[in-house]
């Protein structure tokens, strides 16, 4: 009954380093999402994948890339980390991209860029 | 501009008491409204989803109401427990794929 699993849970990067955040879901959901959560702000969509093989930009895509590796996995890559990317990152999945489908969120990755 | 505003920002109540959290939105057109509970260090967990035609929905001690005419929603928590301490996030979906608008949340603390 894992749901959405994110790794790592915590990460500290130096400015300019790169890293990939991993996300996997075991609910056979079609759509997956990456959000960031910053203090005093609502969650903001970085990228999403409506279905396997497709990806689209969200509200704040700059500095990030994504890969929908297969139906289960959706990774988020920071090519050259910046302090402004210090945040908590959440992966989520849903059965479909629109309508009344509920979202299931992972536990988050807390990233600090120094 | 599509916005979701929640009040209060934070709230402290005694265990066993009731409380009501508010959500006002300007999202249009509107598809549905969701309430999520987010424990510290965890991801949000869905409590309720309401469409335009629903004006109340319950999930245990949580009852959400929706007035689509005034674009207001509330989340009422009955007989609060220490485990209710969390942030409660109101999320409004507009039309189109992935058109979710998140509020900043109300931080609820229940004290013994």
Give a brief rundown of this model.
The complex is a heterodimer of chains A (114) and B (112). Chain A has 114 residues and is mainly beta.
Structural account:
The complex is a heterodimer of chains A (114) and B (112). Chain A has 114 residues and is mostly beta strands. Chain A is 0% helix and 48% strand. Chain A has strands spanning 4-7, 10-13, 19-25, 31-37, 44-49, 56-57, 64-68, 74-78, 87-94, 104-105, 109-113. In chain A, the strands form two sheets. In chain A, strands 2, 4, 5, 6, 9, 10 and 11 form a seven-stranded mixed beta sheet that branches. In chain A, strand 4 (31-37) and strand 5 (44-49) form a beta hairpin. The mean pLDDT of chain A is 94. Helix content of chain B is 0%, strand content 59%. Chain B has strands at residues 4-7, 10-14, 19-25, 30-38, 45-51, 56-59, 62-67, 72-77, 86-94, 100-102, 106-111. In chain B, strands 2, 4, 5, 9, 10 and 11 form a six-stranded mixed beta sheet that branches. A five-stranded antiparallel beta sheet of chain B has the order 1-3-8-7-6, with no helix packed on it. The termini of chain B are far apart. The model of chain B has no long low-confidence stretch (mean pLDDT 94).
Quickly count the helices of chain A. Answer: 0
Low-confidence stretches of chain A: none
Averaged pLDDT of chain A: 94
Provide the succession of SSEs of chain A: EEEEEEEEEEE
SS element count, helices of chain B: 0
What is the beta-strand fraction of chain A?
over 45%
- Estimate the strand proportion of chain B: over 45%
Helix percent of chain A reads under 10%
Gyration radius of chain A, in Å: 13 Å
Helix fraction of chain B by DSSP (H/I, runs of at least 4):
under 10%
Structural class of chain A: mainly beta
Number of strands of chain B: 11
Broad shape of chain A: globular
Distance between the termini of chain A: 36 Å
């Amino acid at each position: 009954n894992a749901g959405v699993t994110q790794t790592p849970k915590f990460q500290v990067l130096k400015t300019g380093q790169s890293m990939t955040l991993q996300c996997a879901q075991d609910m056979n959901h079609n759509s997956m999402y990456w959000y960031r959560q910053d203090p005093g702000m609502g969650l903001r969509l970085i990228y999403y994948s409506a279905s396997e093989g497709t990806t689209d930009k969200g509200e704040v895509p700059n500095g990030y890339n994504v890969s929908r590796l297969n139906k289960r996995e959706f990774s988020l890559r920071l090519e050259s980390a910046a302090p402004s990317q210090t945040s908590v990152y959440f992966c989520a999945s849903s059965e479909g991209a629109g309508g009344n489908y509920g979202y299931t969120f992972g536990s988050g990755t807390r990233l600090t860029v120094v | 501009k599509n916005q979701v505003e929640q009040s209060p920002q934070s709230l402290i109540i005694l265990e066993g008491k009731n409380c009501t959290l508010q959500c006002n939105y300007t999202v249009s057109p509107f598809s549905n409204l969701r309430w999520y509970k987010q424990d510290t260090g965890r991801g949000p967990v869905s409590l309720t989803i309401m469409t335009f035609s629903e004006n109340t929905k319950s999930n245990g001690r949580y009852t959400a109401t929706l007035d689509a005419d005034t674009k207001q929603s509330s989340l009422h928590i009955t007989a609060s427990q220490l485990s209710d301490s969390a942030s409660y996030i109101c999320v409004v979906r507009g039309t189109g794929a992935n058109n979710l608008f998140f509020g900043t949340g109300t931080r609820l603390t229940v004290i013994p």
